[in-house]
Amino acid sequence: MSMVTNKADAVETTADQKKTRKGVFWPAFLVVGGGALLGIVNNQLLTDISMNGFLASLRGLGWLYQIVSIVALLIVVIVTFSKIGNIRLGGEDAKAKYSFGTWFAMALSGGIATGVVTYGVNEPIIYFANIYGEMENTGVTPGTPLAAIYAMGRSFYNWSFIPYAMYSLSGLIAAYLYFNRKQSLSVTSTLTPLFGAKVQKGIWTSIIDTLAVLAIALGLASSLGAGLALIGSGIEATYGIKQGPMMWLGLTFLITATFTLSALKGLDNGIRRLSNINAKVFYILLIALVIIGPTLYMLRTSTAGMAYWLQNFWGWGLDPIDLGGEALVMWWTLYDWAIWIAYAPLMGIFLAVISHGRTIREFMIVNWILPSVFGLIWFGVWGGTALYWQQNNIVDLAATIKASGAVAGLWAFLANLPLGAIIIPVVMLTLILSFATAADSMVRTISTLCTANIRHDEEPAKWKTLLWALSIGVISFVMVAFAGGAQGVDGVKYLAALGGSTVLFVFVLQVASAIKLFFMDKADK
User: What's the pLDDT score for residue 34?
Assistant: First the structure.
């Protein structure tokens, strides 16, 4: 009888310990739902409020975005190549759970989303042709061979070592403090080196974690909404099936079901398997284009692009808008930094969870170096092929983008590939898998952050995972279907970016926390 009672008490205690963090769950859920509701009622009002606030933050804080990004990169470099890199997450006897290949697939797929697929072709062409005035202040003449090199170098800059340093730094602090310092698995705990244990008590812990959840939840909703419109436009352009609410509903169901089932199956049975599949599809697409594309041009332009990027590294890295102008710096680099930083705290939690048993140097190789190299290769191959075609009048991708929008060049590009009929549906599948593998890991992380006293190897309650997954899917569909197609997600997109500007201050504190933790605290030195 006593044993039964003790067991019941233990179960009750465990359930109580892992109860929902209402101070995080409800504010985040209500803001996400309220933003979506406002978007339905008056999407233009939501867009105007969000965009004006976001642009004001970029104009006023562009200098801070650039400085903190460079500092984060420098910290990551020092940590990776110094003795600090020898520290094992979890202690000397900790064993890694995942193989190197699986670990990299989960890290890459969790952080990449649909960005490289969407912009691997479009971004270099936009720079090259000066479509939105990006080249006005650069001194480079659009449409020239130098413009192609500039476009490649700028794309490398935006999609490699600096943004992945943001993810890696957030992840490293979370992993080290959780596994080696026995702190809780939360964004707030990453600030304990600065403020001590008191930061994890009272209202601040709820505010900080809620901001991180909001930024990622709204970001996922806007990303899925944009993905629905992008895949829909591809189906319309390729197969002549006009996109509309029914197509978007079908795509929403397919994508949401994919990442929801993956998240519900958990880290090992769902997220791991889907990430492995997605990574392999990425590798196949890269190899295919290397074989059928202008290989020598890719190699030469990529090499020259890296030279141009490194030559201009400090000028680009510390430009708060004044050197390159708003069209280039604010709408591309700073906008990208705002999104990456908005995602960084929660992405860091996910990267921490899957890193147990690895050294800090291994952590940085998998989460910083290899994804950055992947970004360089992807843009070198896809962007290089697009630039070659544009320069040699094979396909006028610039005209397509001018006529149909910033992401329209992708389908025109794919339609002109030798195996386009096969590659186009593969790319559509890649877009679905890319979003799903980012969403399943982030939905799991959101649910984890909304749960008290949860361990890294425990799964959050299924109802939380299901609720967040369905909310993101429903919001995305409603915004696209009832608020103007691709433009319908603008309100939520800018609201997410505005939320990211508030997360900037959390990230600044994380950077300061890392400096104190690894370079000033005697125990860690």
Answer: 77
In terms of C-beta density within 10 A (0-12 exposed, 13-18 middle, 19 or more buried), how is residue 196 classed? exposed
3: number of Cβ within 10 Å: 7
Beta-strand runs (E) in 448-489:
none
Helix (H, G, I), strand (E, B) or coil at 354: coil
What are the CA-CA distances from residue 143 to residues 390, 391, 410 (Å)? 9, 7, 19
Q: Which of 470, 498, 438 is nearest to 227 (CA)?
A: 438
**With contact defined as beta carbons under 8 Å apart, do 350 and 191 qualify?**
no
Q: What is the pLDDT, as a whole number, of residue 284?
A: 93
Average pLDDT over residues 315-338: 94
pTM of structure: 0.90
Of 440, 489, 494, 500, the C-alpha closest to 224 is 489
Distance CA 518, CA 421 (A): 52
Question: CA-CA distance, 87 to 388, in Å (whole number)?
Answer: 45
Tell me how far the alpha carbon of residue 116 is from its chain's centroid: 10
Burial 380-406 (b: 16+ CB within 10 A, else e): bbbbbbbbbbbbeeebbbbebbbeeeb
Alpha helices, DSSP H only, in 267-415? 272-292, 295-311, 313-317, 335-353, 360-364, 370-378, 384-391, 397-404, 409-415
What is the average pLDDT across 353-377? 97
User: How many Å apart are CA 201 and CA 205, to the nearest integer?
Assistant: 6
Q: How many CA atoms lie within 13 A of 228 on its CB side?
A: 36
Taking only the tens place, the pLDDT of each residue in 139-192 is: 999 999 999 999 999 999 999 999 999 999 999 999 999 999 999 888 999 999
